[in-house]
Amino acid sequence: MNAFNAIGLFSKQEGETVEATLRLLWDYLSARHYAVYATEIPASLLNIPATDELVLARQIDLAIVVGGDGTLLSAGRLLTAYSVPILGVNLGRVGFLVDISPSEMLIQLEKILNGEFIEEPRCLLQASAWRGAEQLGENIALNDVVLHARHQIRMIEFTTYINGHFVNTQRADGMIIATPTGSTAYALSSGGPIIYPSMDATLLVPICPHTLSSRPLLVPNQNQIEIKLGSQRSVDSRVSFDGHQNIDLQSDDRLVIKAYPEKMRLLHPQHYDYYHILRTKLHWGTQL
Question: Which of 119, 213, 214, 251 sits 20 to 30 Å CA-CA off 52?
């Protein structure tokens, strides 16, 4: 009995390599009588009818993402609410999330389709922006929610509360609120630690803080984080979700961040080793 029946193909990229990979997947899955659907870009490359993303999310029981980590982030934000497991084929550069290479794709895919895989839950964040009692917007993020100045390189002042408890008031270029998945993204380049991806935790990393005593802070992701922009420095700010879906902010606006109730279901081959990925991608042990 197959572990999956209806499969969706996702990609945000175009080009010969992407098209060849998608064609290989389509031919393989179709020959084995799987129901295969595709979003707009894969469908155009394969010359088949496209399926709307929200419709597709309700129809499939496995998503195969072809591209880089950014493509998987987009698919993850869509599919987590529908509890659809996701498998990533790496055509990008870094590939912390998409860990199957095209050269071994069909070998690994056969095993995964037969139920031989590791499933890893990944946390997401849900954040809302407020101006007094008015909600300015809300969105989710798989990597990070980032508060930063909007138009110019200037420090902003903000106060952080966790579960209603005052933490500190600081001046910085901004704040990164990251999941363990996002700990190897913007948070890492800002001096944050690497967190094992299946942990239930949230990371707060100030961006270029105006003090030598500021340090990253790791808290359980059951905590609610609130960040209030100060009124002393009137700097227009913005909050971004995985680098997209910006909401503009001003003095005294608030961000409320908490764990998204559902977790992304990320599938790996049975030989998956996170530490091997870290060694490879971060060039640990490389002689200078």
Answer: 119
Catalytic residue selected from 69, 99, 144, 242 = 69
- pTM score above 0.85: yes
Q: Which fold has domain 125-259?
A: Tumour Suppressor Smad4 (2.60.200)
Q: Where are the domains of the chain?
A: 6-122+263-282, 125-259
Residue 252 falls in the annotated catalytic set:
no
Instruction: Please answer whether residues 23 and 47 qualify as being in contact, where contact means their C-beta atoms are separated by less than 8 angstroms.
Output: no
pLDDT tens digits, residue range 145-190?
999 988 777 889 999 999 999 999 999 999 999 999 999 999 999 9
